[in-house]
Sequence to fold (295 residues):
Amino acid sequence: MLEFNKNFSPEYGEITQVSPLIRRLVAPNPSPFTFHGTGTYIVGIEKVVIIDPGPAIASHIHGLEKFLETLEISHILVTHNHVDHSPAAHPLKLATGAEIYAFDTGDQADVDNHAEEGRDQNFAPDHILHDGDVIEGDGWTLDVVHTPGHLSNHLCFGLREERALFTGDHVMGWSTSVVSQPDGDMKDYLASLEKLLDRDDKTYYPTHGAPIENPKPFVKALIAHRHDRERQILEAIKAGNTNIPQMVTAIYSDIPTYLHPAAASSVLSHLIHMADNGQVTCEGSMDKDGVFTVF
Fold:
């Protein structure tokens, strides 16, 4: 059973100590896709690394810069380049001299579908990270875990000293992740969830919302939820809802209509995955105008 935790009320502008090696500053950018805002993590004691510097909000960037005046920052890490995660990286680099590390962003042309937070088209890391890389600093060690699905360039970072995983938008305790075409991929997303089950993390720190303790049962529930969603899609098609708008109306009757574009994008990702698995076929284009049947 998938149960969400929405018990999270950050104080904007305040640095919060969340563990011996981890502090967090939440940006004032609440939305249906960011919950109460983007959580920027500061890892280490005096020589630190920043994970997900956040959006281009002056008060948030200024708060980070003021706090870091007495510290040495060695790395700026970015889980992925949505506009609520990466735009503050460059001004933070200019202020501190630390360089930016992320997965290869690839070709970013025409990748936004406006169903969620858009891509930071200007983002360009100084260093490209790969799955299995290790980043070390003063008293901390981070493993790089490539977790495509939400975006193809999504990374998680595992803090060995605390068996903690910074999960970005891959796993969040308050909501499921949006998996949007064309860059999001449901097959990759499910494989990336399975990949986390092979790890021994005891706490997840998503970029949005509260930490997730004992995360493996939650990850298993996320996987089961996605399989159940595909069962619902098959039932909707059998009931005569053969295009995506009809499926969204039938399946997502309990959510506000302004979230239906994101739901439609998620359904499309599921349908592409289901077509690859031989569960459905599509007449016409594989998009909202396509007519789907159960194979």
